[in-house]
Amino acid sequence: MSTLEHVNITVPDIDEAIKFLKTVALDFQVRIDKKPPESIRWAHIGNNDYYFALQEPHLDSVAEEPKQTYKNYGVNHIGIVVEDLSVVEDRLVEAGYKRGISTPIEKYRKRLYFYDSFGFEWELIEYLSGKPSEKYLYEELV
After folding, report:
1. Is 1 domain-assigned?
2. What separation in angstroms does the CA of 27 have from each of 20, 36, 75?
3. What's the pLDDT tens digit per position in 24-47?
4. pTM, whole model, 2 decimals?
5. Above 80 in pLDDT, residue 116?
6. CATH classification of the domain holding 118
7. Which of 4, 84, 102, 119 is the most core-located residue (most Cβ within 10 A)?
């Protein structure tokens, strides 16, 4: 079986990205945070199985227009499975993060979307079943 091990994201502010990820996932720790001489800063944050590789923009890059989810090329959203979605939601709201789109009520999972301070959209998922046929059921519930 294959699993996703990490996602590499260029962000405008690594410290802010780390703050957001630690708000979502309390088990995430910074594995490494480096700024080699005459290079860009990069960091890895995650748990023992998965992590996010964060990096600053390259030294000679010019920032383009702010990212607009589903309009610009690049990442649209990143999904993180959490144990208790309502607890994570409370932490994000308390920290001032903006909600994304609303989601339908589903039988075997709960989902929420939030934006970090850079405009990246994050889908947070709590599965209510361990069975793949139920976890990944694309039902249309009203």
Report:
1. no
2. 13, 27, 24
3. 999 999 999 999 888 889 999 999
4. 0.84
5. yes
6. 3.10.180.10
7. 119
